[in-house]
User: Fold this.
Amino acid sequence: MKRYIPVILVLAFSLMNSSELHAQLFKRRVNKSVNFTIEQLAPRVWAAIQNDFYGKAICNAGIIDLGNKTLVFDPFLSPSAARELNIIAKQLTHKPVSIVVNSNYHNDHIRGNQVFLPNASIMSTSITREEMERIEPEEQAWEKAYAPTLLEAVHKRSINSNATDRDEMPYWVGYYEALVESSDELFLALPDVVFDDSLWIMGSKLSVQLVERKNGNTISDAVLLIPKYGIAFMGDLLCNERHPWMSDGNVHGWRQSLKTYYEDTLYTTYLPGHGKVAGKAALRSLYEYLGDVQALCDAAQTDSAQSALLLQPIPAAYRGWYFGRFYQPNLQYLLSLSKQKTQGTLKTVSKQ
Assistant:
């Protein structure tokens, strides 16, 4: 970069405050990606927000400059998108990524791990690592066999779908393209550092805390907290104006986690696993969604009532949310849990 300041920048100093100028300079010097956009949340803290228009990141990620080390949170589904994330993280922090955190075991939050090896340590809760080791090999094999067919089906559906569905199709095209393109290079990159309950990562300039939340979005989710700036990286415990995937979760525990961080006055900025960076209103909305869907299922006591519920439209309050295709599977999951409970066959997922 040239060492003199052009006239246009001198004028800029008089027209904008230092934070605005920093943002402009930031946009000039950092490479851009078609898979995600970078948003600075605080000094040394950035969000990488998935591009829904054919992007292959699929979830949101975080980048944190701890001073003496760089941390990445949830390194995406696609290794190609993770490679871009790795490059941009180095540009932002001027050091290589040395810590990668997985918030849960879902494929979109872990498959980028392999890009950061062997130089970075990968961290997760001990339960998340166990679930990754149990689920990922079979899931990768299944996707290698069937993702090409599913991608073709999505392409056809994008042509014939209605306007609402068509708006979301680019996201799913990106998802299945990522599965197909990465299938030959994927390998199982498991965490080499695990924790239970909580763990502090102490940096020379900034420290963060990892906190385990059990029985929420999955059996074990990790939240990353930055107390200095009141920021929480929530993973899939928070989806902002998007239907969550509930079929690996526990509604009661999930709502309790949302309530905990909603009521904690220290935290005001939240990076969701999917959707835009949010304030407390997004936690409240998802809390209400989970409660409303559970209440609908609880009220459907008979087989006929359950069948009728599955045919009803999405409630008006949530009809504009992304991932509407998750709504019916969410109902089916909760109805099946209710049936198992009635029959006395429900098994606990807790590993307490």
